[in-house]
């Protein structure tokens, strides 16, 4: 993106939220699919003009978890389903089209301009935009969010912030010519600025740590979107968002959206029974087989802005804190077998190319795994020997200083593919003397009680993104973002609990690059660094397979594009 003085928001650079992945794609009916990622469209949402949609109705959206926290800047709010619900009822400064091109969301921001040197950003706010309290959305709301999420407050350690990226670079926020103009000053350019304020919260919920940490727990005390009046049913595990009758933009075509929580194994059945209108099917072979020829079901096909990976907890004092041991584990596991086991029952490409930071529709997409991603159990055994983990006899678990190399591999319930991946890894790691204890935990406890606090050694899940910037993944690989109240490093959304100075510096540089080719080159350099550290080891780029009722429009596989909730509707 070339930045000119007073340049309007322009071209994207290149392309996270955290999500328990439940699905994917692969061979069709036992035969290998020769299709490549390049053959798959960028978006598939049954795009329909608003004039062709009915007024009213309810869209029943199936999801696989019942998120506890809807302050998405909180460490526990960094879940894809929490973000999808929040996006229907909260302001966002920009949206992205199918090419990843950013645009001001004029319901909130009429224009956004960056100075020639990239250090001064100006938003002209929509004066019609109001919170559900009736208060105007003003520069003060933006300033309060910068203060908190950027870690600029004196009591920052009391706010459980997941990621400060971009906000921490803003040194000043000022009122412009009126309360509806806000001017941000950056200490150094932040090329990904259109991804800031993807969810804006009212000033008072950003200033008070108790309100920040607790007010949006299974609650939306204040909203400002095409939908609002959010209802939670803990018994049914549903979240309902209702049309905002005071909305100043194009009115929502639907009366309401109901998010229904089901175990992954149940979603296809309730879809087939007409109890929900759509869900992410992904790589669930049984679901695909059940729905591929079902009446009243359309399966989307597009690139998804997500990838599935294997993650190791390399925190200080942990069993896998030694990078050489992590590298050895990657060589001991046949990732292609793991992927094929997951991608074996749906009509999706078997193309194995994966990049952590770039999707296959983006500039510079390539595989950077050479030397670190190959399946080589003999090499793995040699590396473990050199790392001091010795095996007394074949079939025995390796030990070092009296400690066993026995991994706690934590998986969520109701995800068969996750269980399959763990079993494959267990069998293959056994061959090189590494023990695995598979621990199955309730899906709603998986992230908040095990993965986020670091109570695991290894696991598999999905990183997904709501914007096209590679730098959005920085929160998953950099840190720490400060200290906890106990004085310990706060790793925020970095669930590996470690990083390197080189990775931190590379992400810092990435966010300053405005030339798309330079940006892509740096993204690939970072992906290589992550291979060297065995962080979030990729398994496959996640398929954009959704099951959706044919009469539902403007919803499905969005790829890099934002969802326009007011445009989701039922065709006439």
From TrEMBL:
Keywords: Signal. Residues 111-481 form the Solute-binding protein family domain. Residues 1-22 form the signal peptide. PROSITE patterns: PROKAR_LIPOPROTEIN (PS51257). It comes from the Bacteria. InterPro entries: Peptide/Ni-bd (IPR030678), SBP_5 (IPR039424), SBP_5_dom (IPR000914). This is ABC transporter family substrate-binding protein. It comes from Streptomonospora arabica.
